[in-house]
Design goal:
single chain, about 725 residues, alpha+beta, ten-stranded antiparallel β-sheet, eight-stranded parallel β-barrel, binds (2R,3S,4R,5S)-2-(hydroxymethyl)piperidine-3,4,5-triol
């Protein structure tokens, strides 16, 4: 049993071979945190870790005991106002206006496996022996309210998941102003906080900052997890790098507003908390009403950042993603967006599809513009029926024609949005989120449907189900192209408005749930103006996500490198597009574009009918290469070796599970001249295997490649070089 309860000391120890998480019931019956980190042996008492000292000016719980102060005791789920002076995990307004609560230990249960969360995405197990869950029930007898904290530890992964659940059992109405999914008090502040930040077309850049006293936080108030900050932070020790060192990762399984915060006090205790952002959140709970927070996935690694990422990759790939495509190699697709934008007709689509089929591409995706009067981005959203002027055969006819070519067919949708110029809006203006007496701002000329209203969700479900049922659809790209503003739901009364943004997200999950259950053979790819909703919540329904609208190979090095901190390669939609690149006007070779795009769920996004015969032949070879190696790429172990944020070179590699094959992607951004010799130490190989290395056409043992390194020097180490900028290479390693 990897969760032990030591009755005498009232201590809980969650552990497996790699990690330990320890906390106890304090003498005031609240929960005190003792340790989280590398596994330590189980003992029946760790009270020395409490470190209760008497400190001047502290507020103390018991008279005659000046050492028991919640201001200094590290806690599991702190509240404000009874001694603790820091940011709490939960904040409640009582009927009398007070915010003072006191949740004390009532009971606990230890169960095999991992219960699912109602209406929310979460990691899961397939066999109850994979994990153990501890549920601790706390109770506040003044408000007669239960608070249940759940902890799951996986047997063979360095993972602990946490969530909180609250239920009002009493007569008094309470208002939850804030309820975080977790809080964790770490005993020092010697960490750098890593965050994935950015904006449209430059998502998930890696940023580090040293923890300082006070608050450091990232958040989203955009109604989606956002491209500004991803719902993930990591705390790494100063000398931790990709290869070695200690790091803790925190990832929220949620797609809406979030807060991830580290509050460092002047005794250097670092309080990490994560959950739904309290701003605009407010939840009235009457008798028998409850609330479930999303889950946080906490990962520990003492194998550097690669170790942390690999734990997230395998967990998210194997126990967060679901459905038929979870374990399947992803089809190589061609998407018409950058080829045609809105300007296409059926003939043009069929022309691209035929050529794609000739080149070995497996799936054709019809992007925006196929429905209603959608000839530009001012109209049509909400009218989910085909525009027969553009596609006379309709989606049903077109999908059949594409199937007849021997290709799968996929469709773009943006189900949460509406244009004012649409039949849906004309019929149901009340279906949008709009604040009474206030102007509504638009985003890309579109407005947000009220997905907190089940009637709206059902309406959209029926409309889109009809299209799917009448056609042969194998793939859906679910887009979402604006942030939420002036949020107000006309189907909720005034005191319910604080839950609308969360219920909107539940509505999105509900629609995903219905569609993925009804159409289990469809591969879903989530998207939000590229990667503004690249989060674990989405992965639960859609095993891949369009990583960014920026398809430039050199920009993608940073975007894909940062994304890989948490998300597996199989989840990253990555396409070869035209040059000059449509976002950044850069020219790169077709090789370089493919060499970057291979490391993800691969596809094309350009008018291949306009490519020269030579280029078309290259595409054919690229498709063959990807078919040969996609299992390795999408399901192997990924290592980042050299960061595009630090250097002119980017290097990463992926190794098959049995270590018999590996691919190394090498990219040099700018040409250099007469520079030093270069080699890079590889990772994850079998030291005793002899590998044949393509490009060098030589054999090396795994220990040579990992300890001496792979020689990557080229003619730029001489005084004459004609390779140019944006050079890339793929080394294929095969065990003899
Ligand atoms: C934004 C997406 O990221 C693009 O790939 C494309 O689907 C457009 N929306 C279509 O409007």
């Amino acid at each position: 049993m990897p969760i032990k309860y030591h009755k005498l000391s009232q201590t809980f120890h969650l552990y497996n071979n790699e990690i330990s998480y320890i906390f106890k019931i304090l003498k005031n019956n609240q929960l005190g945190h003792l340790y989280y980190g590398k596994a330590i042996r189980d003992k029946d008492n760790y009270d020395y870790l409490l470190e209760t000292y008497s400190r001047g000016m502290s507020v103390c719980t018991f008279e005659n005991d000046s050492s028991f102060s919640l201001d200094h005791i590290k806690q599991e789920y702190p509240t404000y106002g009874t001694g603790d002076m820091h940011h709490p995990a939960i904040d409640i307004t009582l009927e009398n206006g007070s915010h003072i609560v006191n949740f004390v230990y009532k009971q606990h249960e230890i169960i095999k496996g991992k219960p699912s969360l109602e209406n929310l995405p979460a990691t899961y197990v397939e066999d109850n022996n994979e994990s153990t869950t501890l549920k601790i029930t706390l109770y506040d007898d003044v408000i007669e309210t239960y608070l249940i904290l759940s902890y799951t530890i996986y047997e063979n992964r360095n993972v602990i998941t946490r969530n909180a659940y609250i239920k009002n059992n009493g007569k008094q109405k309470i208002v939850i102003n804030q309820i975080m999914s977790m809080s964790l008090d770490l005993p020092d502040k010697d960490y750098e906080m890593i965050e994935l930040t950015g904006a449209w077309a430059r998502e998930r850049y890696v940023k580090n900052r040293k923890l300082e006293h006070g608050i450091q936080s990232i958040y989203s108030l955009r109604g989606c997890s956002s491209n500004a900050f991803n719902p993930f932070i990591a705390l790494k020790r100063e000398h931790c790098d990709e290869y070695q060192g200690e790091v803790l990762g925190f990832s929220l399984v949620y797609s809406g507003n979030f807060l991830a915060q580290v509050d460092v006090d002047t005794y250097n205790v670092s309080r990490v908390s994560m959950g739904i952002h309290p701003h605009c959140f407010g939840l009235e709970l009457n008798k028998n009403e409850d609330f479930q927070t999303p889950e946080v996935v906490i990962v520990y690694s003492d194998n550097g950042l690669n170790g942390m990422s690999q734990t997230y990759h395998s967990l998210y790939q194997e126990r967060l993603c679901r459905g038929k495509y979870r374990d399947l190699e992803r089809p190589i697709l061609i998407n018409n967006w950058e080829a045609t934008y809105f300007d296409f007709d059926e003939d043009k689509i069929l022309e691209i599809a035929k050529k794609a089929k000739e080149l070995g591409i497996e799936l054709f995706v019809l992007d925006d513009g196929w429905f209603g009067k959608r000839n530009d981005d001012h109209r049509g959203l909400g009218d989910w029926y085909p525009n027969l002027n553009k596609i006379p055969s309709g989606i049903s006819g077109l999908s059949r024609k594409i199937n007849d070519l021997g290709m799968k067919f996929g469709l773009w949708v943006e189900l949460e949005m509406v244009n004012k110029d649409s039949d849906l809006y004309r019929e149901h203006p009340e279906y949008t989120l709009e604040t009474p007496q206030r102007h509504s701002s638009h985003g890309r000329n579109q407005y947000v449907l009220d997905f907190s209203n089940d009637e709206v969700v059902q309406y959209i479900y029926k409309m889109i189900s009809k299209v799917i049922e009448e056609s042969h659809i194998d793939y859906i790209k679910w887009d979402m192209n604006r942030c939420m503003s002036e949020v107000y739901s006309s189907c909720h009364n005034s005191h319910e408005q604080g839950k609308v943004m969360h219920e909107y997200i539940l509505g999105v999950y509900h629609l995903y749930d219905k569609l993925t259950k009804k159409f289990p053979n469809i591969l879903f790819e989530s998207c939000s103006s590229g990667g503004a909703r690249f989060d674990p919540g989405m992965l639960y329904y859609a095993p891949q996500c369009w990583t960014s609208d920026n398809t430039d190979a050199i920009e993608r090095l940073k975007i894909q490198y940062g994304t890989s901190f948490v998300y597996p390669l199989s989840s990253m939609g990555s396409h070869v597009s035209a040059v000059p690149n449509h976002q950044i006007c850069r020219n790169t070779t077709l090789d370089t574009r493919a060499h970057v795009a291979y490391f993800g769920s691969f596809g094309y996004e350009l008018d291949i009918t306009k490519l020269s015969i030579d280029k078309q032949n290259m595409v054919k070879q690229q498709v063959e290469f990807m078919k040969a190696y996609r299992r390795l790429i999408q399901f192997g172990t990924f290592y980042r070796l050299k960061s595009p944020f630090e250097d002119n070179e980017t290097i990463w590699m992926v190794v098959s599970k049995d270590k018999s094959q590996a691919l190394v992607g090498y990219y040099r951004t700018l040409q250099e001249i007469n520079v030093g010799y270069r080699r890079i130490k590889l990772l994850g190989l079998n030291k005793n295997y002899s590998y044949h290395v393509s490009l060098l056409d030589q054999n090396f043992y795994g220990d040579e490649l990992m300890n001496v390194g792979l020689i990557t020097s080229d003619s730029s180490s001489s005084d004459h070089n004609d390779e140019g900028d944006f050079v890339s290479r793929i080394y294929v390693l095969k065990a003899n």
